Amino acid sequence: MSACAIPVVPEVHPAVLRRHSPMLFDSGATISDAAVDTILDAGRLAPSAGNSQPWAFVVGRRGDAVHTRIVRHLAGSSARWAPGASMIVVNLARVLLDDSDAIYSDFAHYDLGQAVAHMTLQALSIGVDAHQFRAFDQDAVAAEFDVPREWEVTTMTAFGVAAHSPGAVVGVSRERRERDEVTWARA
To answer: Which residues belong to any copy of the Nitroreductase domain (predicted)?
Structure first.
């Protein structure tokens, strides 16, 4: 296995540059079992506070029973585009210890975010786009999949191949604030 080539002048990785949140997916595109496993492994291997790994995923591929169960709980805004993705993943954070109100990890949501970011970049590296979203009924999804109270249904990620309309990629704006605008302090 070879390491990534390191450019002489550091630059943003091409996968990060091309990342966007598509709102139109190629409804004929599928994701292989091997690609699903690779995406999940990227999340599994993400760093977490104290190696707590406070994440879990519900995976539904378009056309399967899990996907159908997920889609029924989407809000109107996401129901217009997310079902066309090849796969929808429900992202869960472990927030409590078993049978108590004690917090499992102060960093559970942060760590879940890292796992999802790793999954997103891994997907991009194998030609799969991703759109992270929160437009769904959290309580209904938790009930649908019998999620215990120590776990929180947090977000979802739609994975698939972005469909292109003539002349444009349909998705959320890629406009970003400048580096100086997001840097609070720097020597």
So the answer is: 18-76
Q: How many Cα neighbours within 13 Å face the side chain of 179?
A: 2
- Whole-prediction pTM value? 0.89
Instruction: Walk me through the domains of the chain, giving residue ranges and CATH numbers.
Output: 25-163 (3.40.109.10)
Q: What angle do CA 127, 131, 133 make, to 5 degrees?
A: 160
Kindly give the confidence (pLDDT) of every residue in the chain, 187 residues in length, as a single tens digit, with 9 standing for 90 and above.
567 777 788 888 888 888 888 889 999 999 999 999 999 999 999 999 999 999 999 999 999 999 999 999 999 999 999 999 999 999 999 999 887 888 888 999 999 999 999 999 999 999 999 999 999 999 999 999 999 999 999 999 999 999 876 555 556 677 888 888 888 899 9
Q: How many angstroms separate the CA atoms of 32 and 62, rounded? A: 12
Task: Give the whole-angstrom CA distance, residue 44 versus residue 138.
Answer: 22
Q: Which helix (H) or strand (E) holds 93?
A: strand 87-94
CA–CA gap between residue 117 and residue 28 (Å, rounded): 25
